[in-house]
Amino acid sequence: MSITARILKIITDSIGFCLAKMPHWLFVWHIKVLATIMRIFDNRRHKDARANLDFVYGEQMSKEQKCKIIKKCYENFAFVLLETIRVAFIPMEKYMQCFHLIDEHYLLDTLHKDKGAISISAHYGYWEAIASALPPRYTWCNMASLGRLTPFDAINQMIIARRELQKVKFIDKKGAFKHLLKLYGGSNPLAGILVDQNISIQEGIWINFFGKRATHTTIASVLSRRFN
Question: Residues near 165 by Cβ (< 8 Å), separated by ≥ 6?
């Protein structure tokens, strides 16, 4: 581990420990402060969010409604960042009490019948729970989490460490297919895949999304057909 990565780990672990010990109302206050800072200074993504809402809804949604959605998105992203930092310092029994799985029998039926499953999500809600809340419930599965790394090695090391906290193998989106083939060639595989970003047509297919043309990955379908 590089010196930069070590320093970053010390800082994030210190922040995470404090966040895990503070009262819930104070944790929520930190979320709102961080979300406000990001919304003010993250000009590019703020414009992207507004452009996406304009593209999908046009004049059907008011400017105030769009601003409210964007504000909520920043708050949710701030929550995911801070929750990911502090989760290592929350007792697992207490952490698992935060989750209630709806229609879990669909996943369990697939795991027992086909000896494996594919879990798909968007960057919606607390998406990191795929790698933190599912593993303690499915200890017999070989789990992996597919994600995108950053250009910064120190941050990447932290991302991988947090994702693999519950012994979930992290798979980088670049060159992921060969690793997924190896995973699903083994016993009891369960991969979590985030699939909500537009991709090149060479990697996906055209679909209708909110009445607009967009590309979508076929990776889950390919794995499902290849491994039954």
Answer: 87, 88, 131, 132
Nearest residue to 165 via CA among 140, 119, 190, 130: 130
Domain count across the chain: 2
Beta-bridge partners for 142 = 189
| pLDDT for residue 196 is more than 80 | no
The pLDDT value recorded for residue 108 is: 92
Check whether residue 104 and residue 185 sit in a common domain.
yes
Shared domain check, 112 and 77: no
DSSP 125: S
The residue type of 56 is V
Phi-psi label, residue 37: left if phi above 0, alpha if psi -120 to 50, beta otherwise: alpha
Q: Which domain holds residue 53?
A: 3-90
Sequence-separated (6 or more) residues with CB below 8 Å from residue 35: 71, 74, 75, 77, 78
- pTM (two decimals): 0.87
Provide the token pair at 212. 């607009």
| Cα distances (angstroms) measured from residue 200 to each of 23, 51, 144, 176 | 45, 20, 24, 16
215 neighbors 204 (Cβ within 8 angstroms): yes
Sign of the torsion angle spanned by Cα atoms 22, 28, 29, 30: positive
